[in-house]
Amino acid sequence: MKILVCIKQVVDPEKVEYNAQTKTIKRNAQYLMNNPADLSALEFALRIKDVYKDVHITTLSMGPAECESKIKELIEVGCDSCVLLSDKRLAGSDAYSTAYALAKAIEKLGNFDLILCGESSLDGETSIVPPQIAEYLNIPHIAFASNIKVLNIERIEVERKLKNLLFRFEVKLPALISVKKDSAFLRLPKLSFMIKALSYTPQIISVDDFENFDFDRVGAEGSKTSVDSFVEQSFEDVKCEIYDGIEDAQIECIADLVTRFL
């Protein structure tokens, strides 16, 4: 079985800085991290490999060359190969353009039985890239999975929790599944894999490697959405008020404060 896991390198939320001219997040290499929801998806792939030894896991990332150091961390936990789609012409791509570029990369890399993604990325939180990739590839898709079980070489069982309900889906492969964040926690690195990662170099591809690629659908100009403006919120003026007692006036004041933030 061939499994592909899409993993994005995002900026640590506590270290985010914005470029006022381009209206994009500054991708400072020292603050990059692998997207948590994508790592949950990777853990499911690794669990499948624990049971079925003939499983081959490939990761696919899209970003600048600076992402390479974080991609090597994926080898440390047991991935077989990693691919980085890196091309300056993709800079500024929104979810629509990103999904198109990733789908073309997947087509280039070959046929996969199962494609796994995190439900969303920390820097976007749109949750629409995975289903768009599936639509481009014309394969089934299930979102917000909480568990994945291989039934046989042709089918998998996917669980999805919604409040007090548990849904089970049987899906025919090939398929794409997006995984809920924190539904699984990535295992710790293994020494033998860490040694392998020291000399490992991810495969680098660009849009020039793709056939029939539409350059008008990627980058800032090819995106269907854009950031008009952004405001950095300051918490310096936040005040803390302590109310002691249960007088009616105090209760009304507390209720007023609470309703302002609902």
From TrEMBL:
Gene3D superfamilies tied to this protein: HUPs
GO molecular function terms listed in the Swiss-Prot or TrEMBL record: electron transfer activity
Protein origin, superkingdom: Bacteria
Domain Electron transfer flavoprotein alpha/beta-subunit N-terminal, first and last residues per copy: 22-214
InterPro entries: ETF_a/b_N, ETF_b, ETF_beta_N, Rossmann-like_a/b/a_fold
The protein, known as: Electron transfer flavoprotein small subunit
The species this protein was found in: Caldicellulosiruptor acetigenus 6A
